[in-house]
Each structure stands twice: as C-alpha cells, then as structure tokens.
Write a structure and sequence with these properties.
- It is a single chain.
- The chain is mainly β.
- The protein is built from 3 helices and 44 strands.
- It has 3 domains: 163 residues, no CATH class; 132 residues, no CATH class; 320 residues, Methylamine Dehydrogenase, Chain H (7 Propeller).
- Strands 1, 5, 7, 11 and 14 form a 5-stranded antiparallel β-sheet that branches.
- A hairpin with a 7-residue loop joins strand 23 and strand 24.
Length: 674
Amino acid sequence: MLAQKGERNMGARACWASAVLAACVMSWPARCGEDPGAAVSVSAARVRVANGIDAGPALNASPPPTRARAGTSIELSVKAERGNIEIVRAWVNRVSALTDGNGQDLRPAPDPDRLRYFDGLLFPMPEQSESDRTRLTVEGERSPSAGSALVRAEGSVTALVGVDPTEARQEGFRLEKGQKIEAGPVSLEVTDVRVAERARQPARIIVTDLEHLADDLDGILGFDQPSTLIEGPSEPAPLPPGALAGTGTRTTTVTFTGRGRVDDLAGVEFLHADGQQVETVGRSVQSHVEAGGARTFTLGVTLAETLEQADLVVRYWDHVEEVEAPFSVEVSLPPGIAGEGDARERAAPQGARDFRFVAELRPRPGTRMSVPCGLAFRSVALHVPYAYVLDRGGTLYVYRIPEQGWAIEMEPLAVLPDAGDGMVNRTLGDVLLCSRGGGLDVYSLETPEEPARRGSFGPGTRLRSAAMAVSKDHLFMICRSAIVTYDVSTPAEPELMNVLRVGGRNTAGTVVGDYLYLGTVRADGEPGIAVLDVSDPAAPTEVGAVSTRQAVWHLFGTRGSRLLASLDADSLRSFGRDPHGNSALFSLVAPARPELVAEIPDSGGRAAVLWPVDGQDYYVCNGAVFLVGENGLTMLPTARPTGSNLDGFAYHCDACGSWAAVATDSAVTVMGLR
C-alpha cells in the first residue's frame, strides 16, 4: 500500500477522549535500536452498537439510516510513536476476548476457535491523515447485556512498518514512456502518460485494465446500455497538439510499472523547478506476483496540471518489518446504550441452523486486492476440503480449508496464472471449469492441491463470460450477448452444442426443470429475467419474461417452486456492513410466467449463494444470512460474511454440503455449520 511521507501532526493522531485506553506493548526487532514498548501503540477510538449510537466523535458525515442490527464493535487506532517509522499496513490477527462489563461474551457462542476472529485490514487513502488511515475494527455478534456500562477487548494487531525513509531524486524527469528511476530496492518505469480535462477526471478511479474498461464503467457508474468504449487491449491514443501547454484546467496521469515490493515504497511526488510540490489529485496502486515469483506493481499518479517534465522524488524505506502489538482496551458505553440486550437472538426462527466462520482466504496475509478496475477476487468453487478462488485477472488460488476450528488468514497452496478470463469457475465432480471468453478451461482435480490443466474447449470466438448454469449433463455459459451450451456428461471433455446470440446484456442464469432463467438488461435499459425453454438444450427458445426493479446478479431455484433473484442496490454508495442490494422472490407455479411474490430490501447484491441444509434453503450474501421461505426471507442472528464489492460484476460464490464460501474483493469467507 502506498504511504505518503510528510510532516506528522502528532495531536491529530491522539486517541479520542471518549476511549479509556489500557496500555499495549509490542515486540520490536532489535536492529531498530529503539525502545520496544514505544514504537507502535494501539488504543480504542470508539465503540459502536446496533442502534448506531457511537461513543466518540463521528469519523464521517452521517450516512443515510440503515436497518438496525444487533452487535457490538470496537474501533482501534494504531499509530507509530517514533518519527523514523510509519505504519504501512495493519490488521487484527487475534481476538482473545470481547466482553461487556458483566463478563458476557459478545460473540454468538463461547467457542475457543471462534475467539480467533479475524476482522479486517487497513485500507488507507493517500489524502487521509495517518490517524484516520490506521483504524481497525473488532466486531462481535451480540449487544451488551442489561446493566453493562462498558466493553472490553483483548488481542493483538500485526503492523507492517517502514523504517528510516530514504529518497531518490531526479531533476528534469521527462513525463514520457520509457523514462526510469532507481530507488533503493524499487525501480520505476513510465509506461503511460495521459492528459484529460480536469472536470472529466473520475474521482480516484484510475483504469489500469483496458481490456475490461467498458464493463468496469458499466458496473461502477451504473450504465445499463452496452458500452462500446474499448473492445480489447489498446495502445493509448497520442496526445493532441498543444495538450501539454495548459496548466490547471487539465490533469496528467502518469502510470509507472515498478519492480520490487510496493510495500518498500514510502511515497512519490513531483516538484517544480523552484521546489514547489505539484498538486496530486489521485493515486492508484496494485500489486502483482508473476509466474516466477517476482513482485511487480502498477502505480498511477494524477497531477492537477499538465507538465512535460518535473523533478521526481521517490521515497523508500531502509527496511520494512512486520511486528505484533498486543492490545487490551476498555471503552465506556454512553447513556442510552447500556442494558439494551440482544434482540436478534430473540428473533431467531425456531429450527433454523446456526453457522460459524471457518476460514478467511486471501492472496497472502496482510494484503488487499486493488479495486475498482484492478485485481479483485471474482469467483470461488468448492471441492471439499479444497477451495479454488479465481481473481479477475485470471489467476487461480488453491486453498485447503481446515475441517475443524478457524483459520485467521490462509495462504494459497498453489497459484496458477492464466486460468481463464477471471470471471467464473465451478467444479463438476473431479473437474474444475474456468470460463475463458465463452469457452471453458478444464483442470483435473485428481490431485486436488495441484490442479492439472487438460485443455480449452469452446466456440473459438471471443465472448464476455458472465455466469454458468448447470442442469444434469448440460452447462449453459451465460455471456454478455450470447448463451453457449455444452454437453458435460464427461466434464473433462466438454462438447460444444450451440451458440445462441441474444440482445441486451446478460448477467446471471439458473436452470429449474426445463427452463433457463436469464438475468438480463434489455437494449432499452430495462432490467429483468428472460425465460428460455431448454428442453432441447441445443436449441434454447425464449418463452417469457418478467421485469425487475434493479439489475439481476444471481438467480436461484428454491423449494416450493420459487425463484430467488439477487438484485443490485438502489445506489452505488454503501454504508456499514449490512447487505448492499435487494432481492425478489417469484412463484414458478407457471414456469414460463414467473409471478412476483415479494421484494426484499437490504439483501442480496453482487455476492450471494443459495445454501441447502437439512431440508431448508439458506440465502448467504455479503452482510447477512437469511432463511428462505415461500413468501419471503428471514434474517438470522448468526455469523455473516462481510467485505467490499466495488468491482463492476457479480461475485460468484459456492455452497457444498456443510460449507459455503462468499467471494468479496480482497477475501473469500468460508462458513460452516455450528
């Protein structure tokens, strides 16, 4: 993560006055030559409860009201206490206790494995102060008990810290492709320079993946019409005459490709000849690991004016260390919160199952994927006890999930590059299928920890993959403008049966009986569900359609002749950890004419999966777990996956037996039966 080096306002980094801090101590490498107890500290910033009342100042403007949810969380502030170090990234690696003043455990159950709860990672923005950047959250699933006046938390935080910043400077650095600078362990080369009207510059959206630009804009900006901006990889257009002549009304975006670890980089800035800093209005960074293990990254810097050259200063760390900081904090509850109790537990339907966290799957401990328009986890397929996670760049990550206990952060057993187009994958028996432009990349799972590529199958023309729908021996690859049908009676050798071109933009699909239900946005921009008769899989025929309020991201056939649709949210902005989306339940008594039964707000969204367990259907989405009934959904007071879904497509999740896995941008959460 790129960290901006500069003057530090120690007053701004002090903990909030409302928090009662119990001191924490950390272990510090001896070579730093500093007092181990004073290098990094962790304090409590505030406490949150279900009704939204905070102890401590609000960090942001008040968001729109969201549905109340029982639960308690403590926000931690992590800060560096020495001027020669800076926190690059931090995360909670262990929570040994989270209780109220009466000693009640604020998690669903006093499960020793559950006490190793992993919450989240630091996600800094360059323009934020360090005190705002270094905030982490420890979250519990219960509200404080009656009469309780405080909340306590104990555990430890891991911090990646940069030590002793050094700088490399090059005067008169020309802003053109091919220019290079060496900065200690990092080397940078300019790979792109672009000039744009400042008013048109998207806020902090720096596009580095040209191949997916059209779809990124569709998803991020909410365009319903198919975009024709870019059809494939393209060289940047040459700058028009005089483009570099102005100052202030245009911006210049300089993109660097870096060799080395981006964590070694402390900051990049451009200076005028008189030493004045050039205003920076945007930054982006994404890390890559190449097939041979070499580390590279892409760095984008957007300047508030147009320049042909400037003095370039690159700051880097003498070294970067990973250290652990135990914490023990206690926060008083303000009046009006204490004694509320836990309403969610009392609302649990009789006979509903309870669930637990099993694992948090990430590329490597302490990292985040870069979104939007960068790399993000896109899809997960289960083959118990293995999980196969695909990112949007087409890299496949293989994990073995613990069958007991809780894994805080799991590293992949194997990483396979170029495993399809990065859109969707799923398992059929001992075979893993990954989409590739409407086709299928096939991997054998005879040795599940080492998937073996068996070949590629498909129409030979490039299409935009969106989803897979399987019915017995047939697989329907849902593409943006087509449906590709395969015979998968022998999954290791899929046989192409048909390519059906359709209008609009397709986003999801599922097969129920002899019908394929297709989530689509018509050419006129109206979202809905098309119904296709697939009794002859080689010749799908449209027989009906129904409109929906928002775009459809997922479709599931449920018990009681119902069709459950996971829909987009009403707005692009999301607050809190509740689901960011909507759902609709349809009756399939007349399969060709789905009839709306119920619309459910604050549910569904871009990441969702149907999880059949013990004769009941559970609907797991990013932010909640619901019990599916014939007339609607019931939210359950249980563990729930949380994460960001900032990318412009659906996130494909999976459920298998006693496991369910939900993909988000930077992690896959695996859940199991309690």
